[in-house]
Amino acid sequence: MPRHPNRRTVVRTAVWTAPAVAVATAAPALAASVGAFKLKFDTFNLFPADFNAQGEPQSLESKVQVENVFQQNGPTLTTLTLVVSYPDTRTTGGAPTQLSGAGWSFASATHAGSSWAYTFLFVGSVPTSQSTPQLDYHVPRTADTGPVTITGTAFAAGSSVVGAATWNGK
């Protein structure tokens, strides 16, 4: 004759099964939340470059790296847009005279208000906790003197990070 479980066995099994069901229903919500990028600037700076015979800088050089901040099971960054704004008193808005960095390209320079916004695009593969290759570029400088502060914003799939750099040169 088949043996049937008693009531205590059924209750004990139900108690042990309930947490497994609760965890199984919570996991898809957690998995769906992973995917947004967390970005930060590893490098974002500004300094004079391309000096003439009188020792005056003819351009402003910047170096930029953006990190795909570590997340457990975080997404791999494949595209990134970087916008760096300069006061229009300090740059002519001309295209960069030099640009290097694997995967980086110059997209545009747009005048808005009292600033020139330089847009760069990155296409490549940056796993979580890694950084883009360093972007190094020079923009034409005006003869205006005094400190220069630039701001940079990096965007990727709904995430962004903002940074600033200053050169207190002449």
Q: Which CATH class is shown? A: Mainly Beta
String of helices and strands: HEEEEEEEEEE
What's the assembly state of these chains? single chain
Q: Could you say how many structural domains there are in total?
A: 1
CATH architecture: Sandwich
Fourth-level CATH superfamily: ntegrin, alpha v. Chain A, domain 4
State the share of residues found in helices, binned by percent: 10-25%
Description of the structure:
There is one protein chain. The strands form 2 sheets. Strands 1, 2, 4, 7 and 8 form a 5-stranded antiparallel β-sheet that branches. The chain has a 5-stranded antiparallel β-sheet with strand order 5-6-3-9-10, with no helix packed on it. Strand 1 (39-51) and strand 2 (57-68) form a beta hairpin. The chain starts with 6 loop residues before the first helix and ends with a strand. The protein contains 1 helix and 10 strands. Residues 9-34 have low confidence and may be disordered. The chain is α+β, with helices and mostly antiparallel strands. The protein has a single domain, classed as ntegrin, alpha v. Chain A, domain 4 (Immunoglobulin-like, Sandwich), CATH 2.60.40.1530. The radius of gyration is 26 Å and the shape is elongated.
